[in-house]
């Protein structure tokens, strides 16, 4: 085929000639590495030791071009010498990281107590704790190293463990696998240097002695003459390497945490040295006339100023008449701000990606000027997050056998539940995808029916005897352990927080081999929809030894695809799963392949690390700790539920997504069902999760110029009758006028916690204006002089005129429209009408001193919405108190025994009435009667749970009608309680603590520039602010505090000295959820 190659070359030359294309000239780049791995290790060791003399000697001898311009390589000009000061930061980083990691380094698992006892004796004999500490330090700053295992019965009856740092170790690899580790030991004898190379490979130890490049017999040196080579089991290597990071420079070797940081360390030392030099040079200088300079009393010689203190200089002067001979003092200006900024920048570069300043004990607040320091001295969350969250974990001592008991994982789109197949010797890994819906032609703005995807099935070789599971909330991972008659299987499962990937890591023990995996796609008949045109069509599954692809298509368009890949490794197998949905395109399979390529390129450890970081950041947005372990566990279960089911770029949440397969309501509804879900995202400082809800309404309102059609689209509903899914309701009889107003109340609450006026002006204002004005056509004036509402519809049935639900919604709508128009300075022509409606609207309907309930659904507290969450009827008005109390009590007594009674709403109603005892009682009843072992609820996975979190927040803090209320509804048994960075209306972040029944402090941070009005629960407060402000008392314990955006105020009882640290409450319990034997 040479003639074809020649022809190809001729064609290329001809084209180049014709196009006048000149071939590129090849360039050779030559980069000389000045240090090998050992030299690199020596340099890092010097930095770790932190001796400035050694650093200066090293860099002034180093031939590296760039190094000669470094601070430690520079030489001062004669007469301008400067102290070079090393901060010691590299060593501090290593020692701190070691102290953090070390407690987990000796945490081994053993098959039997006998093995454990043997290891404890070996560890004690070898002082292993000290050895592993030294090894960890050196592996961190050098990059790697290895433990050498030897046996010498003359020294110890146990195996001897010796640590060799990376500069005394050579790691030999073949096809990226370690084949041999060479331990190098230097010796000196009679002025000659020797190096012993002990080559440890699989099944052998070979000893080689060198003097320079000359290989000698080991007997040539007395210290090595008794060494012998050994051969043994070829599956064993008596050497254990330790490598934390992988070097980007030296292939096959470990990376140091100093890699890429030495220039930053050098700069930090330079900044600090210059700053200290400026302080010395900037001492006050006193100029004394020479005639007044003090003399040595013994010799009469002028006393010369010491070059260190530099306190005075002799100036011209004499004792002649007329000479003033004044003494002048000059204080040079030292640019501390510039030095400080440079220091902080250099420090940040040193620590970036390695460790936080606070972990090192570096308080950067103390480096600021006085005003900035006071501003930054805010409440500290003194918390070991991992330890605290461990007490919130869910623990199953027995394997769950149905979905309602199973631990759940998710990321807003992908969902996973793990449980034992009740009818087979297998574990089921049930998947779900929130976007996999039937795409009804006229679906509501919150979407269509959620459709199932399928189950992955793990089948062990042995018979399952028992098992246990733990849902680790802090890391959002589930660990499943099953024991079979052949051994043990351990699976670590998680749905990645950011990537659309499910990961299961499987290890085995004993004679139990790696289990078999299979995929069972959801069959067509499993769709909850019975309408043929909306059914999906299962297309195919292609299964391979290492994975497979399964796809679904729908007649309405779109595709759902499940892809999986099983990575088989010596220490563990890892099953990667991705499920994607595309609509209207059919590109879900390609999306899955792209996801796999990205995740597999990163590798398991890196992907898992990113997943955990997301969750740690999510939890740290706010903090709540309670004295009641059950309630505290419940609250944090809801935070986990929120994080696993919502994302700012996701869909509006429904019941159970993304885990649901079949639910009582297949579609996203309004009423309490969505309202209750979205309420707690505001107070918990997660208002970014409200974006899907905002987008759903605001985008729908802009899509269609036909407002009638938009209205029906927004309020169209699906209801299950029998087992069928009905198309969206468009008949006027099924339209509930108040639903959009209620939805706008959610959107208003979201706005009030963010204070985005652009959102208010261009999105919410026109939407609420339309919704409120739709009531106007239904108003009529009667002989009593009041406006009354004609008949409206609820749940598809007629309701009486002047329904309390609609009256409350209309009143709230008018009040809020007036508030909006004042804030935005909009001269709306409807203002006069809204004001008139508020004056003349008929009062809420009552009977025997209680608000009249909806007769169709009396257990649903629609008639009480004016109390909560609208607050248009509240206890701030004294005459309202009897009506509020009687109405809540009457409704609870009449309905609390009904199926599905909303205990959480009752709890929030009592909290609004400031009845902490009853609020807690209702919450406890809900948890005990309606909450399942996995923290879901019997009637509906989501609504009661997240509404329960809001009920807890309502007990701790309330913000409505422009006032923040601290600890408004605590039960008397809650003596110790604390929270951190809960968000209120006005976009304030609040932290507070109560100890032994007394509030120790409250801190308010203003994030939007609104006026802070706060009601405290104690008298005689002290207000601590960064500047002088005028605080106005406007009520018994209520104050206006005009702090600016970004400022904080700390409030505490007079004469007290709080430490302003939030700690977890020790409630001595935990792990309430999960299935116990």
Shape: globular
Radius of gyration: 37 Å
Strand numbers in spatial order across the main sheet: 16-21-22-23-24-29-28-27-26
Poorly predicted regions: 14-22, 369-376, 524-536, 662-668, 717-730
Helix/sheet category: alpha+beta
Give the SSE map.
Elements: H1 2-19, H2 37-49, H3 52-61, H4 89-105, H5 113-125, H6 128-142, E1 144-150, E2 160-165, E3 169-174, E4 177-189, E5 192-201, E6 204-211, E7 214-216, E8 230-231, E9 239-243, E10 245-246, E11 254-255, H7 262-281, E12 285-289, E13 312-315, E14 328-330, H8 336-351, H9 370-376, E15 380-381, H10 385-390, E16 394-396, E17 408-410, E18 414-420, E19 427-433, E20 454-459, E21 464-472, E22 477-484, E23 487-495, E24 502-510, E25 516-521, E26 537-544, E27 547-553, E28 559-568, E29 573-582, H11 588-602, H12 604-619, E30 623-625, H13 629-645, H14 672-678, H15 680-683, H16 691-703, H17 707-715, E31 720-721, E32 724-725, H18 738-754, H19 757-773, E33 779-781, E34 787-789, E35 793-794, E36 797-798, H20 804-824, H21 831-840, E37 846-847, E38 850-851, H22 881-895, H23 903-912, H24 916-930, H25 943-956, E39 957-960, E40 963-966, E41 977-984, E42 988-995, E43 998-1006, E44 1012-1015, E45 1021-1025, E46 1032-1033, E47 1038-1041, E48 1048-1053, E49 1061-1062
Parallel strand pairs: 12-13, 15-49, 40-44
Antiparallel strand pairs: 1-2, 1-9, 3-4, 4-5, 5-6, 6-7, 6-8, 10-11, 12-14, 16-21, 17-18, 18-19, 19-20, 20-25, 21-22, 22-23, 23-24, 24-29, 26-27, 27-28, 28-29, 30-41, 31-32, 33-34, 35-36, 37-38, 39-40, 41-42, 42-43, 43-48, 44-47, 45-48, 46-47
Helix pairs in contact: 4-6, 7-8, 13-25, 14-25, 16-17, 18-19, 18-20, 19-20, 20-21, 23-24, 23-25, 24-25
